[in-house]
Amino acid sequence: MIIVDPKSVVILIRGGTELIIDEADRAIHDALCVVRDVVEDQKIVGGGGAPEIEAAIQLRKYAQTLGGREQLAVEVFADSLDIVPKTLAENAGLDQIDVLMKLRASHQAGNKFAGTDLETGNVVENMMLAGVIEPTVVKIQAIKSSTEAASMILRIDDVIAGAKSAMPPGGMPPGMGGMPPGMGGMGGMPPGMM
Fold it and tell me: Which keywords fit this entry according to its UniProt record (predicted)?
């Protein structure tokens, strides 16, 4: 008996070792999540570093309209997007700089969907037509999450820098005082503990 519209499906995974089974389980889970994201959002972008390179190029153009710190911040953000195609190239054993230069040249020539073929290292002019696609929602979430993480690190750095400037030289911050009353003369660490 064949059920036309099942409510659930079981995938049986077999392998030689527990490690192989766990890896296959993770790969299937990841693939199913990608399919779910595409079905729910119904928007896709090309893979192979195409959206990151295009966004970086557009951000660099925008940075030229700014001045001062804002320009530097936008340029650094654009540089951070280059990490995706660089990492893809590195993981494929390709020259990162060569891949980045080829991608930038292709995008600046108007190929907005150009990405890297990780087997050959060559530029594919349209990753969408080549069938190398990713859900847009995944790209958006990755950029949001990494931006939030970087912002949080910068805020923590500001707090630490602010706390250091508030401390008097060689002492504790104001209002910290010394030991509470009755704590003096405790003798420190027991013998043999140092």
Answer: ATP-binding, Chaperone, Nucleotide-binding
The residue type found at 127 is: M
Strand partners, 149: none
Confirm if 30 and 69 have CB atoms less than 8 A apart: no
Task: Give the pairing of strands 44-46 and 115-116.
Answer: unpaired
Own/partner pairs for 92-98, CB < 8 Å, 24+ apart? 92/116, 92/118, 92/119, 92/121, 94/118, 94/121, 95/121
Fold of 46-160: GROEL; domain 1 (1.10.560)
Work out the average pLDDT over 45-72: 93
User: pLDDT tens digit string along 94-117?
Assistant: 999 999 999 999 999 999 999 999
